[in-house]
Amino acid sequence: MNPSKFTNFYILKKNSNIHMKKSIIRGLFSFATLLMLIVSSYQANAQAVCNPIVIDKSGNEVTTATFCEDEQIQFKANSPGYTSTSVLWDFGFMGQTSDKADVQRAYSQAGVYTVTFTGVGPAGNCNKTLTITIEESPDIDIELIDPDFQCFEGNNFCFVDKSTATTGSTIVGRTRIFSDGFKDTTGTDTFCHSTQDPSGGFFDLFIQLEDANGCVSETTISDYFYVTPKL
C-alpha cells in the first residue's frame, strides 16, 4: 500500500509569495532604470543648445559680422548636444568646408557670405546659418615719377601714392619702408627718398595701408629703382 502524499499548502503559498515579491522587485528595478533613462535624456535635451556663432572684431559672440579680406575669422559650434556625432561647416566660398567644431577661416574676396552649420548629436540635428560680410582692403597704387636708374651723387626718387580705400572708407595709415632702412613718415600722397648707401644697387619699397574699417593691405615692390655705387 502506497503511503499517501502530503501537500504542504503553507510552503507552496510561501514560495508563491517569494516569487511574487521577486517579480515586483524586478518590475520596480526596471521601472526605476527606465525612469532614470528618461530623466537623463530630458536633462541632456534641456542642456542642448543649437547656437553656432562667430567671434567679431570686438570679441563678441554673434551671428552676423563684418571683416576684411584675408582676415582670420573664428567660428564656434557652441551647440552642446548637437556635435558628438558629426559637425559640418560650409563657408559658402569656393566649396570650403570643415568638420571641426571650432575653426578659423579667411576670405580672399570681398562680398557677403552665408555660412551654414550642421551638427548631429543626442539632441538631434542643428542647422543654422551665419552671415559674414567681407570688405575690400585698400588698393595699393604707387607710381615712381623720376628715372628708376640714377647715379649716387644727387640721387632723388619721388613717388606719387594713388592708393584708394573701398567706397565709403578712407585711408588712415600709410607705412613706407625702403630696403636701405629709410622709413617715410610724411603720410602725404607725394614722397621722395635719396639713398645714402654708398654701395648702391637695387632697392625695394615696402608699403602698408590701413583704412578706416581697419582693413590692411601690404606689398613689397622688389628692385624698384637702381643707384650706381659711389665713386
Task: Provide a descriptive summary of the structure in words.
- It is built from 1 helix and 17 strands.
- The chain has one helix spanning 9-47, and strands spanning 53-55, 61-62, 64-68, 73-76, 86-90, 97-98, 102-105, 111-121, 124-135, 142-144, 149-150, 157-161, 171-178, 183-184, 190-193, 201-211, 216-227.
- The strands form 4 sheets. It has a 5-stranded mixed sheet, with no helix packed on it.
- Residues 37-44 have low confidence and may be disordered.
Given as residue ranges, the uncertain stretches (5+ residues, pLDDT < 50) are 37-44
Helix content: 10-25%
> Structural class of the secondary elements?
alpha+beta
Shape: rod-shaped
- Measured between the Cα atoms of the first and last residue, the distance is 146 Å
Helix-strand pattern, N to C? HEEEEEEEEEEEEEEEEE
Strand fraction equals: 35-45%
